[in-house]
Amino acid sequence: MLLRYIARRILYVIPQLFGIILVSFLLVKLIPGDPAVMMLGPTASEQSLAALRDKMGYSKPLWQQFTYYIGAVVHGDFGSSWQTTRPVTEDLFQRFPATLELVTFGLLAAIAIGFPLGVAAARLQSGPVRKFAGYYGLLAGAMPDFWLALVLIYVFYTRLGWSAPPLGRIDMAVAPPKTVTGSLVIDSLIAGDVDALSSSFGHLVLPVLTLGIVNAGPILKMTQTTVTRAFSSEFVRYAEMCGLPRRVVLRQAVRAALPAVVTIISVLYGFLIGGAVLVEIVFSWGGAGQYAIQGVLNADVNPVLGFVVFSAVLSLIIYLVVDLIYFALDPRTRG
Amino acid sequence: MAESTKPILEISELWITFPAYRAEAIHALKGIDLRIDQGEFIGLVGESGSGKTTLARAVMGLVPPPGRVERGRVLFNGRDLSRLDDDARRAVLGRELAMVIANPRAELNPVIPVGRQISNVAYYHLGMRRAETDRLALNMLRAVRIPDPERRFNAYPHELSGGMAQRVAIAMALICSPKLVISDDATSGLDVTVQAQVLDLLQRMVGEKGAAALFITRDIAITAHFCSRIAIIYAGEIVELAETTAFFERPAHPYSIMLLAAFSHSPALRARWTRVPSDGETATTGGCTFAPRCVRRQNRCVVEAPTLRHLTGGRRVRCHFPVESDTA
User: Fold this and answer.
1) For B33, phi and psi rounded to 5 degrees?
2) Is the ipTM of this complex over 0.90?
C-alpha cells in the first residue's frame, strides 16, 4: 500500500523533472552572455569564437541543443563546467553536501528557536515571552540573512575573536575526515577525529546561527498560529471538560499543530537549498548555490542546469518524505 | 438519609453576562434557579441561543470568555467550581461531573484512537495503571454496545459513524462513574432512529451508574419524557418548571405550548401558537421577554415582567396569564 504510493510518487518525478529542465533550459538561454567570448577572452578572433561555438553546439537551433542536453542527462551526463573544467556531476557531488550540511543544521537551529517560542507565545496570552515572540517574528522577517551574517562575523570574530574565521568549512591546516555522509561534522564524529570535529563545528556555528535566527521567524509564526488555533479547537475544549491535566491538553494541542509546522519546515528546506547562497558567499562556504551563481555570472550553462536538476530532485525527495511524515502524524490522511 | 436530601447541583440566582464593545452587555442567563437531587434526571429545553450551553459551561465552572458570572452561584456537590483553582477543577471535571458532547466526531481528538481517549479519562482521574484503564475502556465499549469493540478500540474518530462516535462519547463520560452527567444536545446530529437508540442507552447507563443527569435539548418530545422534571428556558430565563407528567398534561407557558406544537403534526395547532414579531419589534425593557412572540400577550405583558410564580402541584411558570388546561 505505502510502497505502491511511494512508487507512484517516484514515477511522477519523471515528467516533473522534464518540465523543470525545459523551463530552466530556456531561462538560462535567455540570459545574455556568450560563453565563447568568456572562455577565449575579449581578444579572440571571430573565427576561433565561431569554431568554439560550433564545437559546443551553440550554433545549432535551440530545440536541437535541448534534445542533445536531455539525451545526455538521461545517461547521467550533465556536461562539464568550463570554469572548473570538471564534469558538473563531480562538482555538484562535492558541493551539495556542504550546502546540505549548512541548511540542515541551520533549519535544526531555526526549529530549536522557533518552535518552543511559538508554543510559548500561543500558550501565554500576555507577558514578556509573548511580546518577545511578537517582535521576533517581525524582526526575523525583516532581516536579510547576509546582513545578519556580517553582523555576527563582526561581533563574534572581529571584535570578540570567539569564532573561527568565516572562511570555508574547516581550518586549512586540519585534514578533513574521510567522506561518509558529506557533512564534515558528522564525518569527523564517525572518524573520531577531535581536531577535525572542533574545527568543522567551529566553522559551522556562525552560518548555522545566521540561518537559524532568520528562518526561526516563519517557524515561530506558523507554530504560534496553529497551536493557538488548536487551543480554541473543539477537541481541546472537550479535553478540558474531561478534566485532563494541563500538560496533557498542551501536548495534544501541540501535537495537532505538528503537520502545519512540518509543512513550513519542508518549504523552508526546499527554498534554502538555493536560497542560502548569500550566506554561503559571506562565509566562503563553497556550496552548491555559490557554484550555480558563478555559472550564471559567467554564462557557464551546465553548472546552472545541473544545480537546478539536483535541487529539484532533492526538493521532490523532501516533499515525499513530508508526505510520509503526514501519514505518520495524521491518521485521516492514510487513505 | 441526610445524603439524599442534599442536592448534587444547586444553581441559585445565576446571572451570566457577556460584555459587548460599545453596546449594552448581553445577559446570557438572567437569574437561573435550578436544583438537581442525587440520581435525578432533569430536562432543560430551549431553542438555540436561549442560554442552554452557557448554563452547562457555567455548571462546569468554564464560562466561555469574555462572559462572567455577574451574580449568583452554582454549587456542584456543595462546591463552586468557578472558584476552585485550575487543578482542583480538573480533578472534578470528567471524574464527578461529566459532559456528553453533541458532535463527538469533531470534538474527539482526531489523532488519538478512541479506545485510548476513553482510557485516558480513567488514567488521569483514577490513578490506575494503563493496562487497567485500557481494560476498563474496552468494557465501556462493550457496555455502550459497540460491535467488535476490540477492533474499534484502535479506530480513529473519523473511522466511526456518528452513532458510533456518540457511543464513544457516552463511554468517555461514564467511565469514571460521575455523580452528574450533562448531556448538551447529545444526539442532535444523529438520524432519528439512531438517536432513539443512543438516547435510550444514555438514559439506561446513567441510571445504572446512579448518576444524576441534566439533559439539555432542543427536542422536547424525545429527550424530556424520561426526565422527572422539565425546565423550559427562554432568553436566559426559566419560564416553566414542572414534573414531567404534569408538564405534558398541562403545559402552562405559551412558549412551552409553542415548543410542543412545533413537534406536532398539526399545522393548525402550530399556527395557533406561533406569532412572528413584526419588523423591529423586540422585548420591551421591563416587560416579558417572550411578549413579542406570544399569541396571548396583553398590555400588561409589555410593561411588567412576570416572575416565576408557583402554580398548583409544585409547578412554576413565568407568565401573567398562564394557560389553563382546557385552552391548550
Assistant:
1) -120, 125
2) no
Q: Which residues pair with B76 in a beta bridge?
A: B9, B79
Look up residue A198 and give its three cell numbers: 572542533
Instruction: Decide: helix, strand or coil at residue B166.
Output: helix
Helix (H, G, I), strand (E, B) or coil at B106: helix
Cβ proximity of B211 and B178 under 8 Å: yes
For chain A, strand residue ranges (E) read none
Q: For residue A132, what is its C-alpha cell?
A: 518577545
**Tens-place pLDDT, residues B149-165:** 999 999 999 999 988 99
Q: Is the CA virtual torsion B86, B34, B46, B300 positive or negative?
A: negative
Lowest mean pLDDT among A33-47, B92-106, B169-183: A33-47
Determine, for residues A239 and B109 on separate chains, whether the beta-carbon distance falls below 8 Å: yes
Is it the case that residue A277 has pLDDT exceeding 80?
A: yes
Written as nine digits, the cell of B311 is: 402554580
A146 is written with which cell numbers?
547576509
Which amino acid type is present at position A198?
Answer: S
**Cell numbers standing for residue B132:** 487497567
The alpha carbons of chain B give a radius of gyration, in whole angstroms, of 21
- CA distances to A111, A186, B223 from A280, rounded to whole Å, are 20, 19, 69
CB A244 to CB B94 under 8 A?
Answer: yes
Minimal C-alpha gap between A230 and chain B (Å): 11
